[in-house]
Amino acid sequence: MDLRAFSKKILRTSSAGSAASGFVLSLFACAALHAGQIDFSGLPGSDGDPFSNYTENGFSVTATSGSWYQSFSYGNPSPSIFLDATAVNPDGSLTVTSSLGDFSFSQVDFSSNNGATDYSIQGLLSSVQQFTQTGTEAATNGPYTFSTVVSANNALIDTLVISLTPSGQAFSFNVDNLAYSLPGDLPEPSGLALFCVGSLAIGGRNGTRAGVLCSSVSASTGLVVMSGSVARAAAR
Predict the structure, then answer these.
(1) Three-state SS sequence of 161-187
(2) How far apart are CA 199 and CA 210, in angstroms?
(3) Average model confidence (pLDDT) for the chain?
(4) What is the pLDDT of residue 152?
(5) For 35-183, which CATH superfamily applies?
(6) The predicted structure's pLDDT at residue 174
(7) What is the pLDDT of residues 44-60, one digit of tens each?
(8) Which of the four pLDDT bands, split at 50, 70 and 90, describes residue 34?
(9) pTM of the full predicted structure?
(10) SS3 readout for the chain
(11) Cβ pair 176, 51 in contact under 8 A
(12) Are 20 and 10 in contact (CB under 8 A)?
């Protein structure tokens, strides 16, 4: 049974229509977006190895220009990837794509070391620009720290391009925790996907109250498993 059919059955069989409506709305709101991030935790190799491409959770990060390397000694937390700003051509860029379909860019962590760096974050859909966000990442000078750049636009895109122009003083620029969200009716990780919809008291026909805190969805069967009177009502 899909989510829409399941929600209609809840509304038909529950005597607490308004409470059930609240449950369904919460269910849809919680399932509307599946958020995640690329934290480079699966990077192979060693500290200082060249970086060219990395895939995590269906997302690919590709170094499209500049001299990029892996860092297992610095990150938010480590590992991260970094641009060598002391190279002959210090500028660099990364391209992010997804095999899961369109996505929204949420935020990214930057660290511009010993000098400032100008950045441009561009979102594309079918090669058409959807947004461009620009700024300057201030220098961090020991102890080195990251800062988070939050997206100013939640448009759906299929390609994200991050372009960097370090100042003459910067010697490296680290990137970590590229966060995104995926639209859809339900998250679809393997096995069971758990998502909480908050506390909801639903009155049964006998006047009792049953608290529903969480529901679990099987990606393989699409079945929703819940506790309390809603689960009993939906089974009728």
Answers:
(1) EEEEEECCCCCEEEEEEEEEEEECCCC
(2) 10
(3) 77
(4) 97
(5) Protein of unknown function DUF4465 (2.60.120.1350)
(6) 98
(7) 999 999 999 999 999 99
(8) confident
(9) 0.68
(10) CCHHHHHHHHHHHCCCHHHHHHHHHHHHHHHCEEEEEECCCCCCCCCCCECCEEEECCEEEEEEECCEEEECCCCCCCCEEEEECCCCCCCEEEEEEECCCCEEEEEEEEEEECCCEEEEEEEEECCEEEEEEEEEECEECCCCCCEEEECCCCCCECEEEEEEEECCCCCEEEEEEEEEEEECCCCCCCCEEEEEEEEEEEECCCCCEEEEEEEEEECCCCCEECCCHHHHHHHC
(11) no
(12) yes
Domain ranges of the chain: 3-32+189-235, 35-183
pLDDT in tens, 104-114: 999 999 999 99
Q: Look at 62-76, 110-124, 172-186, 207-221 and tell me which has the smallest mean pLDDT.
A: 207-221
